[in-house]
Amino acid sequence: MTDITSNVNALISDIIADYGTRSKSSDPSLADHIAKMENEFAEKITYTVGKKYIRIVNGSGGVWGFIVNTTTDKKFNLGDILMAAGWKTPARNLSRGNIIDGDYSISWTGPGYLR
After folding, report:
1. pLDDT per residue over 58-68, tens digit each?
2. Closest CA to 54 of 42, 43, 40, 65
3. Which of the 8 DSSP states describes residue 68?
4. pLDDT value of position 1
5. How far is 110 from 105, CA to CA, in rounded Å?
6. Cα 88 to chain centroid, rounded
7. Coil/strand/helix, residue 13
């Protein structure tokens, strides 16, 4: 099986970068506060590896989404991004992209909607 840890870390870097672009303000007096928020978000985003999925947890403790972590799934490929249906369950309707291919659209709030 392919080790997709580096791809997961790249995805998390993209999530953090998107959070940074969304939190910018034209008010210079908020710069310190915004920098603090960005650092807290980056420090708190984590992931846990399971047999079938990698669960990505955002900075506020909610599930950002899931990554398929098996080559034996009948519907999805290794590295496919799935939206969360709940804390332990991904939405298995359609993939939102693939972290191995690098073909995905995300925001800091979750995987992009279907195209």
Report:
1. 878 899 999 99
2. 65
3. E
4. 44
5. 9
6. 15
7. helix
